Known about the structure:
- About 30% of the residues lie in helices and about 20% in strands.
- By secondary structure, the chain is of the alpha/beta class.
- It folds into 2 domains: about 30-275, Alpha-Beta Barrel (TIM Barrel); about 280-415, Beta Barrel (Lyase, Ornithine Decarboxylase, Chain A, domain 1), CATH 2.40.37.10.
- It is globular, with a radius of gyration of 23 Å.
- The structure holds pyridoxal-5'-phosphate (PLP).
- Pyridoxal-5'-phosphate binds near residues 98, 229 and 230.
- Pyridoxal-5'-phosphate binds near residues 54, 98, 189 and 230.
Amino acid sequence: MSVKTFPLSKQALEALTERYPTPFYLYDEDAIRRNGAAILKAFSIFPSFKQHYAVKALPNPFILKILADMGFGADCSSLPELLLADMAGMKGEDLMFTSNETPAREYRKALELGAAINLDDYTHIEFLKRTARIPALISCRYNPGPLKEGNAIIGKPEEAKYGFTREQLFAGFALLRDNGASRFALHTMVASNELNPEYHIETARILFELAVELQERIGIRLEFVNLGGGVGIPYRLDQEAVDYTCLAAGIRKAYDAIILPAGLDPLGIHTEWGRVITGPYGWLVSRAIHRKSIYREYIGLDACMADLMRPALYGAYHHITIPGKETAPLTEICDVVGSLCENNDKFAVQRRLPSINTGEAGDYGEAGDLAVIHDAGAHGRAMGFNYNGKLRCGELLLRPDGSICLIRRPETIDDYFATLDREALKTFS
Length: 429
Ligand SMILES: *Cc1c(COP(=O)(O)O)cnc(C)c1O
């Protein structure tokens, strides 16, 4: 069982919407910090542990600064993500550059920043050598193929485009060493939103066994293994959060069984978690503005899938609460929808909710109920887009002292037009 909470009372949230009109994202700094501290404590049983936050999950440098303050690094996959992490003060090997189909200029920027480069393919060794240089520290991404079962979001490893095959890894590390690399790391990511700790422990075991084999077969001694991202969060009420202590203990058990006897201790443990770091501590706050009764009952929000596309993209469940009606009986069965000209623009389908007042806001002077969409702190606003001329909403941060700070303003129509040359348009015929 998981419990869905929201850090502000209905009154405080209504007051906030006078300053910042809906829709907007709200993140809870204190909750992010407490969660991060719990992770660091659980993983302190390893000789060294580094968590690189997957920037793509919430690419806001204010959030990255909080994470940097806690000692987290960043996992970047593009040049702009590298720049965001740099902007937040994350430096050198705190940056992990896990990209694929990477342009040369992005590798060059990663090298310039001193990031740890994680190669996605055997051919990238030659590519990196020719277009930039082989750095001392280098990581390779492993795709276990049929040796590991995948999960729903990421699919089967043998159908995934990422990483080296097993044999390519041995050849790759040897080639990297021949080209001057002297510090080595191994990465894999085979799951997404996986709540079963055993799955992640098994991933660690696979990497530990490979670490031993790399040492035995080609004399490569790894400095760290990177378990990637993919730790899930309980989006649904009947799901349970991953117990970090239990997860760390399971990985430690595999470490003791495989790494210690092989004489490979100390081996660093790195992670690239995104979702589990900020997901539960962010909410999309919206207002119900229309009700429509046709073959089904519809509640229209002022947010749409351009603000949060997970439900439309994956059929993902996001819990919805109505502030002030948290304990009210669930008398409504409705689809909660946005305004996009796309029928899958639905935050919830046939959901049981308390009776919702839509107020027919604005025109009639009465405001509808607020609707809070939970677990939107990762892969939420970041996946937003401008289809249908939708402007992406802003982001607010609740600070530990209770103050609220605007960490990204909403987009304006001028932002939307900024990539058009409107002068050229005047004389265009
Ligand atoms: C997306 C991604 C992550 C983060 O995944 P989460 O599910 O948010 O933990 C980490 N590493 C890589 C390479 C990714 O593509």
